[in-house]
Each structure stands twice: as C-alpha cells, then as structure tokens.
Amino acid sequence: MTAKTQYISLKTLGEGSIIDLTSKVAEIVEKSKIKEGTATVFCVGSTGAISTIEYEPGLQKDLPKILDKIAPSDFPYSHHTTWNDNNGRSHVRATLIGPSLTVPITSGKLVLGQWQQIVFIELDTRGRDRQIAVQITGE
Predict the structure, then answer these.
(1) H-helix segments, the chain
(2) What is the DSSP letter of 66?
(3) 81 falls in which pLDDT band (50, 70, 90)?
(4) Domain total for the chain?
(5) What is the extent of the structural domain holding 17?
(6) Is 105 exposed, middle or buried (0-12, 13-18, 19+ CB in 10 A)?
(7) Which of 37, 50, 80, 111 is the most buried (most CB within 10 A)?
(8) In the predicted model, is pLDDT for residue 92 greater than 90?
(9) Distance between CA 54 and CA 95 in Å, rounded?
C-alpha cells in the first residue's frame, strides 16, 4: 500500500466562507497514480471543517443560518471567558461538523455523487490562512 500527502493552502474571508475543494482534491488523486484506495481530506486547525455539500448559492446561504441556530453567536460560551477571543461558537460548530472526510477512490477517480462536492467551511470569526492535508492511500 502507498500513501501520498499533499497540502492545499487557502486564505479565507472568515465565518461562513465555504470553499469548493473538489477539483483540487481530484487533481491530487490523479497525480498520485493510485487507482483503488481512499482520499482523506483534513483541516489542520480547530475552527474549520470539511464536509460535502451541493455547492450552490442556496445551500451556501442556508448552512450558516442553520449553524447559527445550532451554536448561536449570542450564547455565553465558557471559551470566551477562558481565552477572550469570542470564537467559542466556531469551535463548537467545527466539532459538530468534523475536521475530515474520507472519500473512496475507484479507477483513479473520487467516488462522489453527481451534485456532491468536497468543501472546506470556515467557522472562525476572522479570515484565516488554512492548510488542508490531503492524504491518498491505496494501490
């Protein structure tokens, strides 16, 4: 079995940024020459998340609205008291969505549904420079 790791660098605008990574991950898979295996996409950091979504304007508006109901901005997060950085909601939201995604690779291609894209979701309250690790394993 072979493992190959590459990184995708991102500069985000802050909370609510949703960035489609699908083509970049597909390019990394293609360059890896692995035909059967998995691609793991991992956000290095505790206030960002990786998931799949139909990357279209309606859902790009809906997801932040729903996250604000699940982990609202005006909740008295203990994290704020501890660190005085006002991003407790960012950490909670990132924990709920998760930092990584594993996608099967078959015949050298990502196995994704027609409307399914791999996305990075910026949950921090400010713009960030991000590193996304993409590890391809298989044969």
Answers:
(1) 22-32, 57-70, 78-83, 88-97
(2) H
(3) confident
(4) 1
(5) 2-138
(6) buried
(7) 50
(8) yes
(9) 21
